[in-house]
Write a structure and sequence with these properties.
heterodimer, A: 201 residues, alpha/beta, Rossmann fold, eight-stranded mixed sheet, 8 helices, 8 strands, B: 397 residues, Rna Polymerase Sigma Factor, Chain: A, 2 domains, 10 helices, 12 strands, disordered N terminus
């Protein structure tokens, strides 16, 4: 068992109470799932778009099905999980607002991480480069990016306000994946990505 | 209920194949004290259940695995078949060093109710008349099959199962087990199956049944009294069914338009093409090991299977509050039980917030893939079982 996982995944894992129920939407290779199962005794399930990812997870003893956030969250009953997790995927969904609503219906809490489109590197490249941004957290060309609904940290806060969703925690990470503690205006400039824990109000 | 050894069993009236099968496996006579109430309303009993086991039940009885067999298979999972002499039908999965290793699990496979390898079916003698049941045998369902299996586990003193696994009709039984006895099923692996038999699948079965019943040697089901065998009808039924087990690609790759033992078309109706010869062979060998009436009953059981209908029309209700861990498998080229059928089950399990994994295996071998060497299935199934064993506290090496 390897305890080392990506910093943003570790931050998410730290938000999850032990021995709870969690659904990781877009669980990829299952790194977060395995951590939650092995180190926090969480009844953790996964959903992953690629069948090869699903098979790799199942071969590791994880409970994972093929599916995507837009289409398949609606199958689950209300309050099926303590947490529904969506890491680095919200910006690739067709209807992010509906996905968030479903996450908070299915889960008592939602944990969401996403790249910040107002990060200074993005702004510089757009304003002075006149080109679509390509940064470590947004590595794609404009024509092959899966990211169709990018937002800034402040945009996300506004959506939560609009939806009447309570932000229980917000952690903003800099370029080195270190948490930064700055007022919102600066956080929205210096943060490369953010992790939010949300609750229905 | 009381156990009998092979020598005490009422073996009279057995067909030759059944006699050979019973000599090589275990069986129990159940339902003496309390008959089995079938879905059709008939009380059946006593009845015989033939089964085979591999491995040993551990001290805390936590390592039992039930394999549910498909339509024309039987309890001889991992050994030479007493009738055909062929290797076990799931040798690829069950055996020393395999995913289901008898060194770790107590593996049970039970011939289904209505079958013809030792478990009571239309071949058996009706105690009320001392004549073979033939078509007077009550129509049985998948749920009835599971009832006899549960009764056998009671008889053997096995409280619950670490895993119930099966493909095709075996997968239907797995789903029925999970729905009927959620507390007795720790993990469930339905492979290449559906929660209800589709119109197309019923249609194929009906062709098979009509072929049997159109055979003059079928004699209204009483062929044994007439000393005939509806061999032509049963073999046509098998030929039709066999096509549905393969993919178009697999057939094309295996046979193409290759000719059988000839260089040119024969301008007649012999088996010019290899694919014809192959199907004829499949049909004629099937007749030696399978009973025609049994084929009618078991295909009917599959046709009648509709798990949602039995739960108010909502499949998720069948799995309400289920504690079972599920892992479903489908194969990309299976058109008899296509992936979308498995996906419907997954949706229902999600709606019940069940613990479920679903693996679609890339294979061009059609429905039969579940019986073949599919490393992706073995790898993922091994992982699933390992994860389930860890949660159950079952020690595996």
């Amino acid at each position: 068992m390897n305890a080392a996982i990506r910093v943003d995944l570790q931050l998410i894992a730290d938000m999850v109470e032990p021995a709870t129920r969690a659904l990781d939407v877009g669980c990829g290779d299952g790194a977060l799932l395995a951590y939650l199962v092995n180190f926090k005794r969480v009844d953790a399930r996964g959903m992953e778009l690629s069948q090869s990812g699903v098979n790799a997870c199942v071969a590791n003893g994880l409970s994972v099905i093929q599916g995507d956030a837009d289409a398949d969250l609606r199958d689950y009953p209300d309050d099926a999980f303590d947490y529904v997790i969506l890491s680095q995927t919200l910006q690739a969904t067709r209807e992010p607002r509906e996905v968030l609503r479903q996450m908070l219906r299915v889960g008592k809490r939602a944990i969401v991480s996403f790249p910040n489109f107002a990060h200074w590197q993005v702004r510089l490249r757009m304003v002075f480069g006149g080109r679509m941004p390509e940064t470590p957290s947004l590595p794609y060309k404009w024509y092959d990016t899966p990211n169709i609904h990018l937002c800034s940290i402040d945009d996300f806060r506004a959506l939560c306000r609009d939806m009447g969703v309570r932000i229980e925690r917000a952690i903003v990470l800099d370029r080195n994946s270190k948490p930064i503690n700055r007022p919102p205006l600066l956080a929205n400039l210096l943060g490369e990505q953010a992790v939010f824990m949300l609750k229905r109000d | 209920m009381q156990a009998t050894t092979t020598s005490e069993a009422p073996l009279d009236g057995l067909a030759d194949a059944e006699r050979k099968a019973l000599a090589r496996c275990r069986h129990a006579i159940l339902g003496r004290d309390r008959p089995l109430r079938l879905d059709c309303g008939v009380d059946l009993g006593p009845y015989r259940v033939a089964y085979q086991t591999y491995g040993t039940l551990n001290a805390d009885k936590s390592n039992a695995v039930l394999i549910c067999h498909a339509l024309t298979l039987d309890q001889f999972v991992a050994e030479q078949h007493p009738v055909t002499g062929k290797d076990g039908w799931w040798d690829s999965l069950v055996g020393s060093g395999k995913v289901l290793d008898p060194a770790h699990y107590f593996i049970i496979c039970i011939n289904v109710l209505g079958g013809c390898m030792g478990t009571t079916g239309p071949l058996a003698i009706d105690p009320a008349t001392d004549q073979p049941w033939n078509l007077r045998f009550p129509v049985v369902t998948i749920a009835d099959m599971v009832r006899t299996q549960a009764a056998l586990l009671d008889h053997l003193g096995i409280p619950d199962l670490f895993c119930v696994i099966g493909g095709s009709m075996g997968g239907m039984q797995v789903l029925q087990w999970a729905a009927s006895h959620p507390g007795r099923v720790f993990s469930a692996v339905p492979i290449a199956c559906a929660a209800r038999h589709s119109a197309q699948n019923i249609a194929f079965h009906e062709v098979g049944r009509q072929a049997i019943m159109a055979d003059p040697d079928w004699k209204g089901g009483d062929y044994r009294q007439h000393h005939t065998v509806p061999a032509r009808g049963l073999s046509v039924a098998r030929m039709t069914a066999h096509i549905t087990y393969l993919s178009e690609l697999a057939l094309q790759r295996k046979f193409g338009r290759a000719l059988q033992d000839r260089d040119a078309l024969g301008f007649g109706f012999d088996a010019d093409f290899q694919v014809e010869s192959y199907l004829r062979h499949q049909g004629s060998t099937f007749v030696d090991r399978f009973d025609a009436n049994s084929y009618l009953y078991i295909t009917r059981a599959m046709d009648y299977f509709d798990l949602a209908a039995a739960h108010g029309g909502v499949l998720a209700n069948a799995f309400k509050d289920t504690p079972t861990r599920f892992c479903l498998f489908s194969f990309t080229s299976d058109w008899l039980f296509p992936t979308r059928e498995s996906r419907e089950i997954v949706h229902a399990l999600n709606a019940a917030a069940a613990n479920v994994s679903f693996v679609e295996v890339e294979s061009d071998k059609g429905h039969d893939a579940f019986l073949l060497d599919e490393p992706e299935m073995f790898r993922t199934l091994a992982g699933f079982l390992k994860g389930a064993a860890a949660v159950r506290g079952l020690k595996l090496p």
